[in-house]
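User: Hey, quick favor. My workstation is busy. Could you predict this chain's structure for me?
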Amino acid sequence: MSWLKDIRKTSSKGQLASLQSAALGMVVLIIIVAIGAQILGNIRGTQSNVSLEYNITDSGLNAFDTFADYFDVIVIILVAVVVIGLLVRSFGRVGS
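Assistant: No problem, here it is.
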């Protein structure tokens, strides 16, 4: 999770570097969730419908589905944080 530390850092590029770090972190998160869902789907396909293992993997897939529903919100929040950071920095420079 070093990309979270990169988001908080200010660099010579300003908030654009933070946006790039946040975007890269989001892409990695989406890839991990997609691969995890694919693995659980393959495991569930090898089990019978009435087994405990099937129910557990089905619950895992439902959890991945619920988490994936929030990706849009997470992206909007990341962009809003960067925009607010740009506004705060620009107003901070006006007074100096």
